[in-house]
Amino acid sequence: MLRRVFLTLGLGTAALALTGSLALAGTLENIKARQKLVVAVLQDYPPYGSMGPDMKPTGIDIDVATQIAKHLRVGLELVPVTGANRIPFMQTGKVDIIIACLGKTAEREKIVTYSNPYIGEYNSVFGEESAAISRPTDLVGHSIGASRGGTEDLEVSKIAPAGADIQRFEDTASTLSAYATGQVDLVATGTATAHAFNEKSPRKLFVKIKMATEPAYVGVPKGDDEMKNVINQTIAALAKDGTLAEIAKKYLGDASAVDIAN
C-alpha cells in the first residue's frame, strides 16, 4: 500500500513537472512536445471559416492552418471561436495561435503579436444595388449592421455621422441574418464575406462605401518572436509556391487578394 502511495505521488510530481515545463516553454516548443498545433478559427465567417455541407470546417483560414501544421510536421486541432473570444482563448492557453480573419488594430497590438498578412480584402459598407449611398453623409437615416468589436465595426464607427444608426450584433452570422431579413438597411463587412453571402442570399450586397484595406494576420502570443518568425517563413513559402494564390482563387474566385495583403 505504501509503495502504491509513493508511486502515485511520483507520477503526480512528474505530471506537474511536465505541465510546468509546458507552461514555461514557448509556443513552438509546446506544439512540438504534444505533436499538435491548436488553432482558433471562426465557424460563422465564410469564406474564412464555416461549416461545410459535410459538417466539417472549411474556408481560407482552415486551409492556411492546415498548411502551417503541415510545415511544422504536426497534427492539427481546430477550436471554434467568435470574433470576441478569439484573443482571450489564446491568452488563456486554449489555443496556440489565431487564424480567424484577424485584422490589426492599435489596441490588439498591445496584447497580440502579428505575423505578416496572408491574404487581404476591403472592408466596405454594403447595401442593395438601388441604395443611393456613396459617401458617409449618405448614411444618415440608415441602419448599419456590424459585428461587435470587429475591424469593420471600428471602421464604420469612424466614418458614420450623427444620425446613422449602427446596430451591433454578436457575430457575423447574426449581422448578415439581420440584413437578409431586412432588419438593417446596410452592412459593414469585408468583400470576402459579401462574396460568400451573395452566393446564397436573394438580397444581395453591393459595395456602397469602400472603407479600408483589411489584411488578415495570424495572431501569436505577445512577444513570441520565435513563433512569429516560423509563421512568417511559412507564409512566405506558401506565397512563393503559389499555394496562397490557389486558396484565394478557390474561395474568392480571385487570386489578387494575396496581393492586397502585401
Sum this structure up briefly.
By secondary structure, this protein is an alpha/beta fold. It has eleven helices and eleven strands. The protein folds into two domains: 140 residues, Periplasmic binding protein-like II (D-Maltodextrin-Binding Protein, domain 2); 92 residues, 3-Layer(aba) Sandwich (D-Maltodextrin-Binding Protein, domain 2), CATH 3.40.190.10.
Provide key terms for this protein:
262 residues, alpha/beta, D-Maltodextrin-Binding Protein, domain 2, 2 domains, 8-stranded mixed sheet, 3-stranded antiparallel sheet, 42% helix, disordered N terminus
Q: What is the CATH homology-level superfamily of the largest domain? A: Periplasmic binding protein-like II
Share in β-strands: 25-35%
Largest sheet data:
8 strands, mixed
Helical fraction: 40-55%
Q: Supply the number of structural domains.
A: 2
* Mean pLDDT across every amino acid position: 88
Task: Please provide a written account of the structure.
Its main location: periplasm. 42% of the residues lie in helices and 28% in strands. It folds into two domains: 27-120 and 216-261, Periplasmic binding protein-like II (D-Maltodextrin-Binding Protein, domain 2); 122-213, Periplasmic binding protein-like II (D-Maltodextrin-Binding Protein, domain 2). It is α/β, with parallel strands linked by helices and 262 residues long. The longest helix is centred in the N-terminal third of the chain and has 23 residues, at 2-24. It is built from eleven helices and eleven strands. The model is unreliable at 1-24 (pLDDT under 50).
